[in-house]
Write the structure tokens for this entry.
Amino acid sequence: MAALSDWYRQPHDFEWVLTHRSTRPLHSVVRAVFAAGTLLFALCSVVMLFSSHGPSGTISTTWVWVLLVVQIMVAVRWCIGPMPGRRGFIAFALFGDVGLASMLVLYDPVGALIGSVLFAVTGAFCTYFLSPRWLVAHVSFSTAVIIGFAVYAHRGAVEDPATIVAGVLVVLAGVNGVPLFAHVAWTAISRDARRAALDSLTGLYNRRGMDSALTDLWEHAQQRRWDVAAVVIDIDKFKRVNDQYGHAAGDRVIVSVADGLTEYVLATLPVETDRRGRRRTDTAAASVTSVLARTGGEEFLAVLAAPPGDIQDRIDGLGPALGADDARPVPVTVSIGAAILTPESALREMGLPALERLIRSADTMMYRAKKQGGDRVLCTAL
């Protein structure tokens, strides 16, 4: 029960699932699969219209026609439109559940019970793209509908009770059991994958996770012809902190600096807007305009992308943001070295290797800052 409770409360990072480098190449496949699933619903609607066990009466027949038209429109949207956002995925799941139930209720009890297998399409959708809470909502709804059809069939004396119970168990196992098991496994795998890319102490990227994230940032900056800056931050005299206050206090200092870095970078994100013109400051916007990593014991790396002219102000603000703070467990200062790559730089033609040059230059500037006494920011342009 504890494991299930942990699974249910697990936060669902929709943006990570959708934008991870291993899933992005599958976007076209995902759209095709769910377009095919929607067309399967549409095919069932057509069959119902010509079935002797299907809807009768003007209102029922009209409703099936309406669902058929909407299903075809949704399938086309999956085929030719971009990947929807989180709300679009939730809307599709609700449409699948409610639309299917409203269609099956017009069929005879046994046919409706068999048709309930189509809830598995929405269940598969929820398994990979929605949170445990949405999957539980789907499972609860489909279970209630399936049991309702079983009671309806029993009262109509269409089949004997044993046959109905066996049918219900089979349908419930396929429709709900498989998605639940798959979601628990998928959640554990994706959680481990995220943790493998993160530093366990600070929650920032480690070197492994940083490499993949930098590719996204570089592509984003190249498309928009933005400035890119590498910033190396090192805590001054950190060995003295460990020697005087202990390693536990040293860890708290590292976490404090990491939190300050994250807070400052998120607060200074470039203004990005979504398709509706609304400002984006979500995880997806942050992941392509900033990469924050802990690259050593007391050393951090921030790679930033911003419109030309904005990047220098963001770098200059890092000094005050990460400087000595009495609120920290142990007040410390930091040495910061930065290097900026402008859109006009010839190094941009190198592609990703230009980022390696940029980071090395920033590292050199950081060591110069330390040699000059620390607690300062030195910057260069390439």
